[in-house]
Specification:
It contains four helices and eight strands. The chain has a four-stranded mixed sheet, covered by helices on one side. It has a two-stranded antiparallel sheet with strand order 1-2. Strands 3-4 form a two-stranded antiparallel ribbon. The longest helix has 11 residues. It starts with 15 loop residues before the first strand and ends in a 23-residue tail after the last strand.
Length: 157
């Protein structure tokens, strides 16, 4: 189960847990809990079974959590680099979705991956002072176009 977040929300701080109980509570293998015990997780190992205090487990899990990365207005989050990155060449494309906002699309200046970001109409004005913003012209669908001239007014010869 790689990539799953282990949070301390389900851990009771006034309770002690065995290795099996921690593994079951967090949906991890017992070997994973034992590896945590060898590295940073504090336990009461002078008695059997080994007990892990709930407060220690919660502190350990909170310490492992990555801090949230916040993008500045001119940055988008690159999923390949896993970090906020500036737009390549200082150019972004804005696609309006609603009257109050839309999506930005830009290339990562490091790996050239396409990045996306949701932005409000008010934030767009701030962004225009920093970056070059282009708004693509959208063609109207055929079903919504005005009917073309069929030249019915010409006489056939």
């Amino acid at each position: 189960m790689a990539g799953k977040r282990r949070t301390g929300r389900r851990v009771k701080i006034h309770r002690s847990y065995t290795v099996d109980e921690v593994a079951s509570l967090l949906s991890v293998a017992k070997g994973t809990v034992r590896r945590w015990l060898k590295t940073d997780l504090y336990c009461l190992d002078d008695q059997r079974p080994t007990l892990i205090l709930g407060q220690d487990l919660k502190t350990f899990l909170d310490g492992r959590r990555k801090s949230k990365q916040i993008c500045r207005p001119e940055e988008c989050f690159c999923m390949s680099c896993k970090a906020p990155r500036n737009a390549a060449f200082g150019e972004v494309e804005y696609n309006p979705m609603t009257a109050s906002g839309g999506n930005l699309r830009a290339l990562c200046n490091v790996c050239s991956t396409v990045m996306h970001k949701r932005i409000s109409a008010g934030g767009l004005e701030v962004l225009r002072s920093i970056l070059t913003v282009t708004v693509p012209q959208v063609e109207t669908p055929i079903s919504k176009r005005t009917p073309t001239c069929t030249n019915d007014h010409l006489k056939r010869s």
